[in-house]
Design a protein that fits this description.
By secondary structure, this protein is of the alpha/beta class. Helix content is about 10%, strand content about 25%. Among the domains are: about 150 residues, Domain of unknown function DUF4458 (Immunoglobulin-like, Sandwich); about 130 residues, Sandwich (Immunoglobulin-like); about 80 residues, no CATH class; about 220 residues, Leucine-rich repeat, LRR (right-handed beta-alpha superhelix) (Alpha-Beta Horseshoe). It has a 19-stranded mixed sheet, sandwiched between helices. Strands 1, 2, 3, 4, 5, 6, 7, 8 and 9 form a 9-stranded mixed sheet that branches. The protein starts with a helix and ends in a 7-residue tail after the last strand.
């Protein structure tokens, strides 16, 4: 073959040489012709290009017996033998395609330059990338014509195994949803959307050859069902985006294996429903594979139960009016049954079983049916809650945005936060709050200021009394749902941990609740038609948190009986959180000494007149006794009301105490964060007169709006440690000498003495005794001379002495503290609502918050601070009617 090729090349060279001589002669003889020098050198040549196709997908198939290629892309080169006028030429050409996939649709050779004329293709051979012969073929059409300057494309067909592509879509097979349930043979029950990978085995009909595609990734989606005529009907499917190659032929699905996201086997189905499909050469087949779903699976039965519950509770008329979903949202069952668990207010486990139901904001009504008993893996059930229709933007006690495990772990802290929100602590004055914030300090007494409330919004300026700002709870008797009864089948829910029932027409709780061995958090709130205390609560063995607030329909005897039973019940040493707000409780049972793990106890808004000592083994972190009728807190034989080691908040405001109870101790190793006995009738301390008062170790002591006439000197003489004192709104006209000479007087940080009758401060009110006093407010007293001694305290940051009036209500303070600017630590000074006249003093820009308002006769030179005021670096509280000099901008 090489000799033939060499001879052909010699002939070519000879012919080219002859053509060149003839062209030169023509040029010499016709150099002046009219053809303008047209180049005729290629007029005797043309080009040919070969395209290779698979016989199986070519229109006319050659039946010659030849070896068969597996894939066309195996061919890298083609060697073609051509004959012309008795001469044979053989040429090897490179084959190309954009990629292997495209190669199966045809390969294109490089162009071959030939003399014009008719050629016969004698044979062709294919070589792989290693120049190894892999195929010999005969052309289907062996004739081609090369035209001058043209390109002749000629097709060659190759016997290649015909192959096509297949893409699988996994659909649900619901054909077994019959009246007689079918139970699957699987490792475990699983939901359709758990399938993350699938392996498929198919068999070719002609050869019985089986092919397995392993671990094909799937993508779950919910979409409208094109095969269902019902408007808006939804289904779901799994898409396998992978294009798979198969030999052409007829196929049958033999088995499938499903896997979860961790590639753990879910199910092997060796008998899938009949699925036949055909693969054609170089074509893509879209095939739907049915994964069987079974009506007997527990998660499907759960979803049927949801449907029954929805119907029984007037579901078609539900109208959501909360925050987490669009207004008017309802449950939707116009979709495949395995999707019925996807509903607003419903959460499911990874296995599809129903885990949580929240119906609080749907306006449901009716009887909770027996279908509830199917939901044996239900963890949380909310049939209303204290949060319904209240003003809290976020309720930390429920924390719907937190996971179940996190809510369990943070149960105590979240409920502490909730108690702080619903029990507004006694607030101090704005000057005190400003002083503490200057030092980045925070206490309960400034919490509303930290929420951007103003002093006028918090405190009535005329009386000094704190306003009722935040009524959070639902008003007793106001209904937000129409729940009438709960079927006893609820007793089957042995995994239920949270059960909230509130604001409905429920008259009783089923006794079967006692079977709920996992129930830890219970709420029975504002159920006005439940006239008897639900004694089944006392039988719950694992109860940790209980809220039975806002049930004032219970008589005092009923609520006492119920609480006594709980304190003697199986959960007595497990109960940690107890809300009994807004009931008719008159006596706290003596059995409360059994609640050894109680941490948060809210007994506010009752009629409690009698309370028994809790004793040594009860140590609450927060105790609220506000708005009751208590006159004293008794101690047991050991002198204890309760153990104070863990107490953070002790609040007994709005009661009838006449003496501060002697139940605390200055010798305690633990500091209580806040003790609040404001709004009582207290005029002194128990044991103060006979020397038995044990003192205090407290951060914030609030005694606002009581009947003190003297500052409690016993705080100093007993070595008490109190950092922040609020004595606003008493009748104090004297601070006895020695009140600030105690061991821990140096720890005092702020002192609110507003709305009293003071006219002077004691001699021991000195820098030595009070070096860290940051905030002092003696506003709304009776000072007719400026009290200078506090200005000796280097740490004093804010000093307020507003609104001084004598016994007749006249303004009595005219004195400005000349030289005030020399106090380098002062940042705020409040002297408004007095009778100041001309101020002849330097005004320091460092005291950047100055209140001189409501001084009608004042003359104030603002030149020293005008620039800072205009730059926003100085805050002057003034009236435009005042005589403000040297800063015209202030009067514009």
């Amino acid at each position: 073959m090489e000799n033939i090729q060499n001879r052909f090349l010699d002939m070519k060279l000879l012919k080219i040489f002859v053509a060149a001589i003839l062209a030169l002669a023509a040029a010499l003889t016709g150099g002046c012709s009219d053809d303008d020098g047209i180049d005729n050198r290629d007029l005797d040549y043309g080009y040919v290009q070969f395209k290779l196709y698979k016989e199986a997908s070519y229109d006319a198939v050659s039946r010659a017996q030849k070896p068969q290629l597996d894939y066309l892309y195996e061919a890298a080169k083609v060697q073609v033998s051509l004959g012309c006028n008795g001469t044979t030429v053989t040429q090897t050409l490179t084959l190309s395609a954009s990629d292997k996939e495209s190669a199966e649709f045809g390969l294109r050779s490089e162009k071959l330059r030939l003399l014009t004329g008719q050629y016969q293709i004698i044979t062709f051979s294919l070589y792989n990338a290693n120049d190894e012969l892999i195929y010999n073929g005969m052309p289907l059409d062996d004739r081609l014509v090369v035209e001058a300057g043209g390109l002749q494309v000629h097709d060659l067909t190759v016997d290649v195994e015909p192959r096509g592509k297949v893409r699988f879509t996994i659909r649900k097979d619901l054909s077994d949803f019959t009246e007689t349930p079918v139970i699957r043979a699987a490792n475990r029950q699983y939901t359709f959307d758990e399938i993350a990978f699938i392996s498929l085995t198919v068999k070719q009909g002609e050869t019985n050859e089986q092919t397995t595609f392993k671990m094909l990734p799937t993508k779950f989606s919910i979409h409208f069902d094109e095969d269902d005529d019902t408007f808006g009907y939804q289904t779901s499917s799994l898409e396998c985006d992978t294009l798979l190659s198969l030999k052409a032929g007829s196929y049958k699905m033999m088995r499938y294996e499903t896997y979860d996201k961790n590639k753990l086997l879910l199910e092997t189905n060796k008998r899938p429903k009949n699925l036949d499909f055909v693969i054609e050469d170089n074509k893509t087949t879209e095939t739907k594979v049915g994964v069987t779903l079974y009506e007997a699976d527990e998660y499907i039965r759960d979803y049927y139960a949801l449907y029954e519950i929805w119907k029984a509770l007037d579901g078609p008329n539900w109208y959501f009016s909360g925050e987490n979903y669009p207004e008017g949202t309802n449950w939707d069952f116009n979709k495949d049954p395995d999707l019925w668990g996807i509903q607003p207010g419903v959460e499911v486990h990874s296995n599809g079983r129903v885990a949580k139901i929240t119906l609080s904001d749907f306006g449901f009504r009716g009887h909770l049916p027996a279908a509830i008993g199917q939901l044996t893996q239900l963890i949380e059930l909310y049939l209303g809650s204290h949060k319904d229709a209240n003003l809290l933007e976020y309720d930390p006690s429920i924390a719907p945005d937190k996971s179940l495990s996190e809510r369990k772990r943070t149960r105590m802290e979240r409920n502490k936060e909730f108690l702080r929100l619903i029990h507004t602590p006694t607030q101090t004055s704005e000057p005190i709050a400003r002083a503490l914030k200057e030092h980045n300090l925070t206490i309960p007494g400034i919490s509303l200021y930290e929420e951007n409330y103003t002093e006028d919004e918090i405190i009535d300026r005329k009386t000094g009394l704190q306003k009722r700002i935040r009524p959070y709870d639902v008003v007793h008797g106001k209904l937000t749902n129409g729940l009438k009864s709960i079927d006893p089948a609820i007793g089957k829910l042995e995994n239920l941990e949270y059960l909230f029932v509130a604001n409905g027409e429920l008259e009783t709780l089923p006794d079967e609740l006692a079977n709920l061995k996992s129930l830890t958090d219970v709420e029975v709130y504002n159920c006005p038609k439940m006239t008897q205390f639900p004694m089944v609560l006392a039988k719950l063995p694992e109860m940790i948190s209980l809220n039975i607030s806002n049930n004032s329909q219970w008589s005092a005897e009923e609520v006492y009986k119920g609480l006594n039973a709980i304190a003697n019940g199986p959960a007595k040493e497990k109960l940690q959180i107890l809300y009994v707000r807004d009931n008719n409780l008159r006596e706290v049972p003596e059995s409360f000494r059994n609640l050894k793990k109680i941490g948060l106890l809210d007994l506010a808004q009752n009629q409690i007149g009698t309370i028994h000592p809790f004793g040594k083994e009860v140590a609450p972190a927060q105790l609220y006794l506000d708005n009751n009728k208590l006159t004293s807190l008794p101690a047991d034989g050991n002198g204890l009301f309760c153990t104070m080691d863990d107490v953070e908040t002790f609040s007994a405001t709005y009661n009838k105490f006449t003496k501060f109870p002697n139940i605390f101790s200055a010798k305690s190793k633990f500091t209580i964060k806040s003790v609040d006995f404001s709004y009582n009738e207290i005029d002194g301390f128990e044991g103060e007169e006979d020397g038995t008062f044990k003192g205090l170790n407290i951060e914030q002591l609030s005694l606002a709006a009581n009947k003190f006439t003297k500052f409690p000197k016993c705080l100093g003489t007993t070595g008490s440690l109190v950092a922040y004192i609020i004595l606003r709104g008493n009748m104090i006209d004297e601070i006895p000498e020695g009140s600030f000479s105690g061991k821990y007087s140096t720890s005092m940080t702020s002192l609110d003495l507003t709305y009293n009758k003071l006219s002077k401060l004691p001699k021991d009110f000195t820098a030595e005794q009070l070096p860290y006093l940051y905030g002092l407010d003696v506003s709304y007293n009776a000072f007719d001379k400026f009290p200078w001694s506090p200005l000796n305290c280097a740490g004093l940051t804010v000093y307020a002495i507003r609104g001084q009036r004598d016994a007749q209500g006249n303004r009595c303070l005219r004195e400005w503290p000349t030289g005030l600017y020399q106090h380098t630590g002062l940042r705020g000074f409040y002297i408004g609502s007095n009778d100041l006249r001309k101020i002849d003093d330097t005004i320091s820009h460092l005291i950047y918050h100055l209140d001189i308002s409501d001084n009608p006769n004042i003359t104030f030179d603002a030149s020293a601070i005008c620039y800072y005021w205009q730059q926003g670096a100085y805050n002057l509280i003034y009236d435009k009617t005042q005589n403000i000099l040297n800063c015209d901008k202030m009067l514009e």
